Amino acid sequence: MVPATGSQQGASQLRKLDSSVKPPSPAVLEALSADDARLLRRRLAETAECVYNARFEEADIEQTLLAPLSEPANRAAGEIDPSNDDSGVDLLSSGRAVSFTTEQEQHLFLRLNYCRYRQMQVVERFAGKRLSADGVAEFLRWERLSARTREDIVRVNMPLVLAMAKRTRICTVDFSDLISEGNLALLRAVDKFDCSRGFKFSTYACRAILKSFSRVATRTSRYRGHFPTEFDPALEKSDHVEVRRLNVEDDCVHELKHILGDNLARLTEVEAQVIHARFALDAACQDVNGNGRRPKTLEQVGEMIGVTKERVRQIQNKALGKIRAALEDGILAT
For the chain, which residues make up each domain, given as ranges? Predict the structure, then answer.
């Protein structure tokens, strides 16, 4: 194990151990569930650490630390145990705050680090060797106990993050980002806290959470210095297709005027008259006040040339077909 240095000296110290344990045999892995096998691989690849305490060497320490906790003094009779609900809502919404006494808190942190200490012993015992089936069972047992203890500590102290976020009020940082950073700081604080120094965990955790808020505020300020405006996906959208479509439309309009002006579609006199009247292309389509061109209806065009509106529709469709063919031979063919 890595020896303690500097501020780590004293009754407790942070110890770390890089794992050199080889994975168990395929037969042992196949006997595990998929979740346990994945957990085992991940934990063996990480550096094992614990806050060591001299009490871990006592003969009866395992029975003492793994014994159930007594009920918190401020939990009313008949009140639901918060460990039965992993949502954390009961801790934030109940009128009565659930917390641990100093003795219970120390007991839980000693239990957490004792479980990790026993894991480190397994890693040290199988250093450079393949983990046996008994070693896997022992390692996973202590892993589950430490994870359950860590979860209990985190859940009870989660309201600290919300309280500190409300008190800090950093305007430049989104509230959800503060909560996220605070939760991560709380998890790190649980892993590093040394209960033997005599402080309450809330004192240590609040300082860690405030430091994380300061870091995220600095990071956000630095980011906005480089990127003054918020990211807008609309600004990243290319308008190449839209510009190309508008250019084609303009070319078609100019080509259409050219076709009609020079009669490249070989429209008859009646067809040209119908097209100009229906689409308001000449001065005859002005309104009564002469204020602008208005397209005529099929019936109005029929009265102009002396045919029914159905015949006007037939003439219009035939003329549009000729114009379309001329357009396809012209601008659309290039």
Answer: 1-70+88-156, 158-237, 240-333
According to CATH, the topology of domain 240-333 is Arc Repressor Mutant, subunit A (1.10.10)
What does pTM read for this prediction?
0.59
Give the pLDDT confidence score for residue 173 in this predicted structure.
82
| 98 close to 129: Cβ distance less than 8 angstroms | no
Mean pLDDT per 10-residue segment, the chain (334 residues): 42 81 91 92 91 91 86 47 44 54 91 94 92 93 94 92 86 85 94 90 92 88 72 68 82 77 83 83 54 76 87 88 80 54
Q: Using H for helix, E for strand and C for coil, what is the string for the chain?
A: CCCCCHHHCCCEEEEEECCCCECCCHHHHHCCCHHHHHHHHHHHHCCEEEEEEHHHHCCCHHHHHCCCCCCCCCCCCCCCCHHHCCCCHHHHHCCCCCCCCHHHHHHHHHHHHHHHHHHHHHHHHCCCCECCHHHHHHHHHHHHHHHHHHHHHHHHHCHHHHHHHHHHCCCCCCHHHHHHHHHHHHHHHHHHCCHHHCCCHHHHHHHHHHHHHHHHHHHHHHHHHHCCCCCCHHHHCCCHHHHHHHHHHHHHHHHHHHHHHHCCCCCCHHHHHHHHHHCCCCHHHECCCCCCECCCCHHHHHHHHCCCHHHHHHHHHHHHHHHHHHHHHCHHHC
Q: What is the pLDDT of residue 334?
A: 54
Handedness of CA 305, 307, 310, 311 (dihedral sign): negative
The pLDDT of residue 188? 94
C-alpha span between 271 and 254 (Å, rounded): 20
Which of 1.20.120.1810, 2.60.40.10, 3.10.150.10, 3.10.450.50 would CATH assign to domain 158-237? 1.20.120.1810
Q: What single-letter amino acid sits at 216?
A: V
